[in-house]
Amino acid sequence: MEREQWLNWLMLAMICPLIAGAPSSTSKRNVTCPMENLNIVGGSYVLSESFLKYICPDGYYPSLQLRHCQNRLWTPKPSARKPPECKKITCPNPRVLENGEVSPFKDRYYVNDTTTYSCHSDYKFRGSAVRVCKPNGKWNGTTPICGRDSDHCPDPGVPPGSSRTGHVFNIDDKVTYRCDSKLTLIGSKERVCLDGGQWSGTEPQCYAHFTYDTPEEASEAFSSSLKSNLAVSQQHEGEDQQGKKITLDKGGKLDIYIALDASDSIDEEDFDKAKNTIKLLIDKISYYQVSPNYEILIFATDVHRIISMRDFKSTKDDKRLMKVEKDLDSFHYEDKGDRTGTNLAKLYSAIYESLAMEEINDTATFLETQHVIIVFTDGQANMGGNPIPKVTKIKNLITKHDPKREKKLDLYVFGVGADVNKQDVNGLVSQRDQEHHFFILPDLDKVQETFDNMIDEGTSVELCGIHQNYDKTKRSAFPWLAQIYVARPPHGSNCMGSLVTSSYILTAAHCFKSGDTADKITVTLEKDLKAEVGKFVCHPEYNITAKQHLKIKEYYEFDVALIQLKKSVQMSANLRPICIPCTKETNGALRLSDSEGTCKRHEELLMSNELVEASFTSKMKTSSDVPRKIRNIKIKRGKYRDACVEDAKKAVGINVTDARDVVTDNFLCSGGVEPQTDDVACKGESGGATYIDKKGRRIQVGVISWGVKDICTTGKPDPVSQANTRDYHTNLFSADIQSFLKEHLGNDVIGNPLKFF
Ligand SMILES: *[C@@H]1O[C@H](CO)[C@@H](O)[C@H](O)[C@H]1NC(C)=O
Ligand SMILES: *[C@@H]1O[C@H](CO)[C@@H](O)[C@H](O)[C@H]1NC(C)=O
Ligand SMILES: *[C@@H]1O[C@H](CO)[C@@H](O)[C@H](O)[C@H]1NC(C)=O
Ligand SMILES: *[C@@H]1O[C@H](CO)[C@@H](O)[C@H](O)[C@H]1NC(C)=O
Ligand SMILES: *[C@@H]1O[C@H](CO)[C@@H](O)[C@H](O)[C@H]1NC(C)=O
Ligand SMILES: *[C@@H]1O[C@H](CO)[C@@H](O)[C@H](O)[C@H]1NC(C)=O
Fold first, then answer.
1. Would you give the DSSP letter of residue 100?
2. Buried b (16+ CB within 10 A) or exposed e, 30-52
3. Does 491 share its domain with 410?
4. Pocket (CB within 6 angstroms of ligand 1)
5. Cys bridge to 109: 96, 113, 425, 739, which one at CB 3.0-4.6 A?
6. Which residues contact 395 (CB under 8 A, 6 or more apart)?
7. How confident is the model at residue 302 (pLDDT cuts 50, 70, 90)?
8. What average pLDDT score do residues 33-50 get?
9. Rounded to the nearest whole angstrom, what is the distance from the C-alpha of residue 53 to the centroid of ligand 1?
């Protein structure tokens, strides 16, 4: 007995510390699986909370992509005998060309292999004659086809890796495709020759499990599909067609459902990234000048509506997008509940319910509405059953079995991650003529890149403040940036400036001296793009000697100037204007309705805090067109402003009792170490834009003018502030500055004039 009790106690003693040390529920995501035999031949791996991802060098793919750690065991099980390996990426077999020659003729084609195509005599060639195997496992260009073109529809060809049945191409004739074993068919398995001489559906493509779309491919296909569908929704409005511009009524007839997979394989960091991706997508859609309604869902085992279509529509117009943003922000990783499953069936049921609710609310409007469903998923539908019947229900609700109404519904899927189940997902998307609705991208960064690439140049030329945020080493993150040099022997002056319309650069007046002429000014924009200067004009009240009688040696009020270029620059991702407050353009960027747009409202939205987070940039890197450094500051207002202004007295050449004689209300103030240390401006950064990021757009609120002390020495090009080193920025909200900007930018005759309030 005693011995038994003792044994029991001993066992408890041994177990207890184990229990005490066992992972708590929050740390259960720690890798608890054995670390033996995990290596991959020719590559490496990274560990996340519950899985391990294999990585191979360029041109290779891992024979096994992921292992999951569950209950202290890896699936699939590691084996010492047969470790995973990095294999060479191949492109699908191009030797399927009918009635032509492919060279070289090889068994396998690897990355960078070049192939050329030609037709036998009597056959006409279409497609790309030279194709290169790309690192994503696809051939570039388009499918080469040798056809006779004697039938009603052109020969639809045989895409690489596939085979086709059907070789007569008259009206109602069908062709069907299959892909080689181990490849998955994306696109239309079956195509029909239509009356109009076109094939239904989209050309099939054969994807290996390592095949991805590049962000460029996805972006082009997604945005052209989206655009054509937005255009369709406009046609049904019966409004005047203003060129190709898409204009929907506010709160109009476009309903977009966005759903995000948050199942196990998405970790916390990815989850936040995914939320930002949704915001980015909403932002990009707003560039198309439409105001859609949104429902946002996050799903795993269960489905959470972040905001429902009903809620969205019953929120006041101007609060809607803000609400989406707020609700997304306040939804946390932990809120997701059970994350083991990917319940696509339940997701599509939930979307069906919302759609049905919309139909009940207003059937007439429902029938006129374009419905767009965009789902982000790893595609591993592992519970809830087959989602396809639910999707069919959605289709029937919207089309009412009328094929003409099929255009009213767009089903998109973005497959994200290493093991997207392509086969299953292909059945969940629209198969629309010549359009793609299914995209496969390796990770969320690539999805963001896709959306960033999505800006449609045609409709967004006039949009200000757009920039791409994912890569700060690229010019497209600072498309407004201008560097200015004024030649003036023996020393010229260097300044920064900002593109504010397609033909005007805003900078500081003190960059110029009397006697300067336009031909002495060099404006550098994009790398190697020097824009020719037509003229420049300083603020009429700028007068550096105006207060010398008050012991202010140099006086910088109204330190702004505009440089007018001889020609408009061609807008592109690398060349776009920054937003200027109190304009209609900026109203759009801030998502305000016309009636809400006032200068005061802009100032409230941008400058309401006592400490306003803002930035400006250093000069561009030598031999590059991006700034070397972003300088981050807090503009001091309210109780912080007085101390900031007061420090102006410490500047050399200034001897005043009231600092406000030097720093009037027409200046913004930054620098110092309270409550945090700011970055400070260096010589040569004057004239640059002081800007605020708001809703993904950049809005200029100041122009760098002068500072208390120059602490930039050659050895220390990126100084941080000392207690009294303050910088003063010309305040673009001030009425005297506004009137100057309005006079010139509002009457721009070379580029598009800005519309000031
Ligand atoms: C994982 O375990 C380590 C130490 O064992 C701990 O410090 C860490 O917080 C754990 N991580 C999580 C996410 O629980
Ligand atoms: C393919 O060619 C590009 C450019 O020539 C090169 O950078 C890349 O490393 C090559 N990739 C492979 C897998 O050979
Ligand atoms: C495919 O890529 C190669 C090499 O980058 C290029 O020379 C060729 O023109 C491309 N073909 C098409 C059709 O884009
Ligand atoms: C339809 O929705 C609007 C708000 O969007 C609401 O005011 C109205 O009561 C709803 N009608 C029905 C029949 O549910
Ligand atoms: C600048 O101000 C000073 C002092 O008031 C005045 O004498 C001078 O004429 C002004 N210069 C210009 C260009 O207005
Ligand atoms: C500032 O001005 C006052 C009188 O106006 C003078 O007494 C003082 O020496 C001046 N200070 C400097 C640093 O020039």
1. E
2. eeebeeeebebeebebeebebbb
3. no
4. 26-27, 29-30
5. 113
6. 406, 409
7. confident
8. 85
9. 19
- The answer to whether residue 15 is domain-embedded is no
Angle at 110 between CA 130 and CA 184, to 5 degrees: 90
Lowest-pLDDT range, 239-248, 418-427, 623-632?
239-248
519 has a pLDDT exceeding 70: yes
Catalytic residue numbers? 510, 559, 686
DSSP assignment letter at 469: -
Question: CA 464, CA 453: separation in Å to the nearest integer?
Answer: 16
Q: 258 by DSSP, 3-state: which?
A: strand
Residues 6+ apart with CB under 8 A from 282: 258, 294, 321, 324
- Asked if residue 208 belongs to a domain, the reply is no
Q: How far is CA 222 from CA 120, 188, 214, 671, in A?
A: 36, 17, 12, 44
User: Which residue minimizes the CA distance to atom 7 of ligand 5?
Assistant: 546
Say how far residue 20 (Cα) sits from the centre of its chain: 45
The pairing of beta strand 293-299 with beta strand 254-261: parallel
- Over residues 314-332, the pLDDT tens digits come to 988 777 888 888 898 888 8
The protein residue whose alpha carbon is closest to atom 8 in ligand 1 is: 27
> From CA 501, how far away is CA 255, in angstroms rounded?
33
Which helix (H) or strand (E) segment holds residue 326: the answer is: helix 320-329
CATH number of the domain bearing residue 153: 2.10.70.10
- For ligand 3, mutation pick of 111, 132, 134, 220 (most atoms within 8 Å of CB): 132
Tokens 């250093």 identify what position? 618
Section 157-164 average pLDDT: 95
The reported pLDDT for the residue numbered 13 is 37
**What spacing in Å lies between the alpha carbon of 551 and ligand 6's midpoint?**
9
Based on the fold, state whether residues 381 and 305 are members of the same structural domain. Answer: yes
Residue 757 resides in a domain: no
Q: Which atom of ligand 2 is nearest to the CA of 110?
A: 13
Distance CA 646, CA 727 (A): 12
**Looking at residue 576, what DSSP letter applies?**
-
Neighbours of 162 (CB within 10 A): 23
- Tell me, yes or no, whether 587 and 677 share the same domain: yes
Residues 422 and 513 in one domain: no
Domain range enclosing 502: 475-745
Least confident of 54-63, 316-325, 472-481, 659-668: 316-325
Residues 55-73 have pLDDT tens digits of 899 899 999 888 888 888 8
- Does the CB atom of residue 365 touch ligand 4 within 6 A? no
Closest ligand (CA of 114): 3
- Which residue has the CA at smallest separation from atom 6 of ligand 2? 112
Task: Say yes or no to pLDDT of 418 above 80.
Answer: no
Question: How far apart (Å, rounded) are the C-alpha atoms in residues 256 and 219?
Answer: 18
Torsion-angle region of residue 734: left (phi > 0), alpha (psi -120 to 50) or beta? beta
CATH code for the domain of 607: 2.40.10.120
| R_g (Cα) of the chain, nearest Å | 31
Residues 500 and 444 grouped into a single domain:
no
pLDDT of residue 392: 93
Total domains, the chain: 3
Tell me, yes or no, whether 624 lies in a domain: yes
Report the predicted TM-score, pTM, of the whole model to 2 decimal places: 0.64
